TrEMBL record:
Organism of this sequence: Flavivirga jejuensis
Family of the protein in this entry: Belongs to the TMEM175 family.
Parts of the chain that traverse the membrane: 7-23, 35-58, 79-95, 107-125, 146-179
Topological category with respect to the lipid bilayer: Multi-pass membrane protein
Signal peptide interval: none
UniProt lineage: Bacteria, Pseudomonadati, Bacteroidota, Flavobacteriia, Flavobacteriales
Catalysis performed (reactions): K(+)(in) = K(+)(out)
Protein name: TMEM175 family protein
Keywords: Ion channel, Ion transport, Membrane, Potassium, Potassium channel, Potassium transport, Transmembrane, Transmembrane helix, Transport
Length: 194
């Protein structure tokens, strides 16, 4: 089985996820600077979530450019990733709604969803590498164990610190996103152009 259909389906799901997030953004009711500042947490949560969904979309595209074939396990691990990505709009909305960006429960849930997205993407990459063979070029391009471990560790630290300071937790979640942008840059050098 080729990966084209899986990639097209995933692109559609990710496009819907981004659309749902942007539809959750509401303009201020008043035309004042104070009203704008009231929605800044909502916009920041949208920006971080958009960054994450974009990162996974680009990474997904890159790995399926080098994956020559797929199997049932890869289909299911891909759906596992899409499930966790599809929960991001809910957690984004909860954090951005009112003053919940400082509440522990929404921030912990948001971080947990991001952690599960990371773990499910790692599972997807491992499924692809295993299917193509551990010594294949595909497996070597997808081997990012050190960075994966560091990202998971930062998420765990962020989740642990959320009870003390939600801003520190969110900063750590954003740090993982920045690290993942650098990871994508390094992968793009290994992936042939479209």
């Amino acid at each position: 089985m080729t990966s084209g259909r899986l990639e097209a389906f995933s692109d559609g799901v990710i496009a819907i996820i981004i659309t749902i997030m942007v539809l959750e953004l509401e303009a201020p009711k008043e035309y004042t600077l104070e009203a704008f500042f009231e929605i800044v947490p909502t916009f920041i949560s949208y920006f971080v979530s958009f960054l994450y969904v974009s990162i996974y979309w680009v990474a997904h595209h890159q790995i399926f450019k080098i994956a020559e074939k797929i199997n049932g396990e890869i289909l299911w691990t891909n759906l596992h990733l899409l499930f966790w990505l599809s929960v991001i709009p809910f957690t984004t909305n909860w954090i951005g709604d009112g003053n919940h960006h400082t509440d522990v429960t929404p921030v912990v849930l948001y971080g947990f969803v991001l952690l599960m997205s990371q773990l499910s993407f790692m599972l997807l990459r491992n499924s692809i590498a295993r299917f193509h063979g551990k010594t294949s070029k595909v497996a070597m391009c997808l081997d990012k164990k050190a960075l994966d471990f560091m990202c998971v560790l930062i998420y765990v630290i962020g989740l642990s610190l959320a009870t003390l300071n939600t801003f520190v937790a969110m900063a750590l979640f954003l740090l993982v996103g920045i690290l993942k942008v650098f990871e994508l840059n390094s992968i793009s050098k290994e992936v042939p152009p479209s």
